[in-house]
Amino acid sequence: RIRPPGRDTILEEGGTVTIAASRRRAPQDRRGVPARRGSLARTEGRQALGFASPALIGLAVFTVVPVVLSIVMSFYNWPTFGDKTFNGVGNYIKLFTSSPDFWPAMRNTAVFTVVYVPLSIVCSLILAMSLGPRIRGRGALRVLFFIPVVTPMVASVLVWKMMLQPQGLFNGIAQGWFGIKLPNFLADPFWAMAMVIIMSVWQGLGYNMLIFSAALEQLPESVIEAARIDGASGFRMQWSVVVPMISPSIFFATIMTMITSLQVFAQPQLLTGGGPGNATQPLVQFIYNQGFKFQDLGIAAAGAWILFALIIIITGLQFAAQKKWVHYEH
Q: Taking the C-alpha atoms of 290, 295, 296 and 300 in order, what is their torsion angle to the nearest 10 degrees?
């Protein structure tokens, strides 16, 4: 007598009874996964999606949709109020051929980046090396140098603007102590750009300093001692031993500083307003003026995508060149 599978099976042969216990298998889906486990995974997936949905909705509304819309706007004559008309690549052609402020803005951005990035990296590296283990109170000094990074930009710029005025602190000290009359920093094209760069270096000095300080603290003492035994010291030690060993951190800081410099906006906008004339107007300020001052959102969107392409190209070149000078193994 044979019972259905899934239960104990009784076989009778010649008066001998054999009981074979068959194993019960849980129902499975098409992939061979137990149905209960698959149901639990789906439940957990729905719960995870529910928890992540506010962030995903925010990402879509405030990032994905604006990015897609800006691409569309760059191919249209898109005034803030009025009819929108498609003009293909006309906005890009206009920027490169007939916009009077576009190339000066590109030049100002290039000047700012070329001067600001090396100056910021070198000053931060020197400062990090100076705050070595033998310096007393180096923790407090690091906090002191990092304060400008977390200080609101508007407050920092207003203080600098008051100090740079003809009746400000710098001119008062120069005339009162040394009898020297300083130029009007914010009215001269050369000095205005110089002050924007100097203030930007001061503002971001502490960020790169902390990156380099963390890298310096991770250096193996055995390599340093071996270099000292071989006769390395002073500048030779720093340049030939320390700098190559922290080159990944230098590369990261250079990439981030480069991207930040290409997107500079708040410092010239608040300190000089882009002036005198357009001597300190960078590309982001040009885009801002086109969109919100002249109400030409199509030109502004095209300028933004040109800036994006510029950042991608320069970053790609940096990644290609880093193979020659960045050392990831000590």
A: 40
